[in-house]
Structures are given as C-alpha cells and as structure tokens.
Amino acid sequence: MVKDKDLSTEQKILEAAKEVFFDKGMHGARMQDIADKAGINKAMLHYYFRSKDKLFETIFIDATNHLFPMLSSILESDKTVFEKIEVLCSEYINQVAKMPYLPVFILSEASRQQEPFLKKLWKRQKPPLKAFTGMIETAIKQKKIKPVHPLQLLMNILSLCIFPFAAQPILQHAAGISKKDYEAMIEERKKIVPQLIIQSIKK
C-alpha cells in the first residue's frame, strides 16, 4: 500500500528539483539545494532518489519521452502535410507551455556538456527527425509544397514555437503586460505559427 504522505513528499521533491535544475542547471544543482527547496533533509531526499542523475532522468527524460512519441505519432498519421504542420505546432506549444523553461534548459545543458547530456536525453528515443525530413521531401517531390531544405523548415518551426517562451520575461516586461495576457498570446500562436509556416511553403 502506497501512503499519501509518500506521494506528497515525492511530488514536493520533483517540483523542487525542477526549480533548482532550471535555476542552476544540471551541473550546478546540488542535492542539498533540492532538499532545502523541498523542505526535507538530505537523507530523506536520498531515500526517494539515490542521486541527482536519477532525479534529472525522472523529470526531464520523462518529459521528452512523452514529447518525442507524440511528435512521431503526428508525423506517421494519415493527415496531409499542412494538417501535420498545424498539429505539430499546436501540440509542441501545448507541451512546452507545461514546462516553459525546458527548451532553454536543454539548449544550455547541451552547450555545457554535449555528449554526456545528449546520451542521457536520448537514452530511450531520439526526436523523429528522419520522419520529419521524409515528410517534407515527399511533399516536395509530389509538388505539394515549394522546394525547401527540411532542416531549414524545422528550424523555422522550432524558432517560432520556442522563442516566445525563452524571451517571456523580457517581452512581458518590455510590453508591460500581465502574465495572463502573455499566456493568451502564446495560445494565439497555436494558430499563428502554422499559418506563417504553411504560407511560406505553399505553392
């Protein structure tokens, strides 16, 4: 039987770890920092999670393990290329909105310790890059879209989806708008981004 108290303590640890990882990065985070943030002692933290690596895997690898299969399922669906782009952008923004600092964290950690970090990140599954490039190359051959390098198109999509999250503190402050209003703008981007992308490649 699992005690509610145990579930509550584990959730507190995971939430605290998210904050510390996002603030200090994987390399700079300490187990003591996480214990302090969770309001528990270090021995209790080690009871639930043996190491910092285990905590990292639980939080971030699980997040990407949900994201990548979701993207793969969209790319492998029977939808048209334009419908896939619409759903890809919408669902990607949905997922990042749940963990808005995840993309920035991943980019930061990858630049600090590329090989070990990426091995942890992609231990179970890599992003469906080949599926995406294959979809675009097929659409070009079928003359459904303009000739475009698949990676250039992917960079455009990711930039338009990720930048508003990365730049939120700056843009929100500069524009003098509330967090609620900014989140409403993020919601609008689920339609705006795919429209921009589709118009750029539509024949």
Automatic annotation (TrEMBL):
It holds the Pfam family TetR_N. The keyword DNA-binding applies. The keyword DNA-binding applies. Residues 30-49 bind DNA. Keywords: DNA-binding. Residues 7-67 form the HTH tetR-type domain. It comes from the Bacteria. SUPFAM superfamilies: Homeodomain-like, Tetracyclin repressor-like, C-terminal domain. One of its GO terms (molecular function) is DNA binding. This is Transcriptional regulator, TetR family. It comes from Parafilimonas terrae.
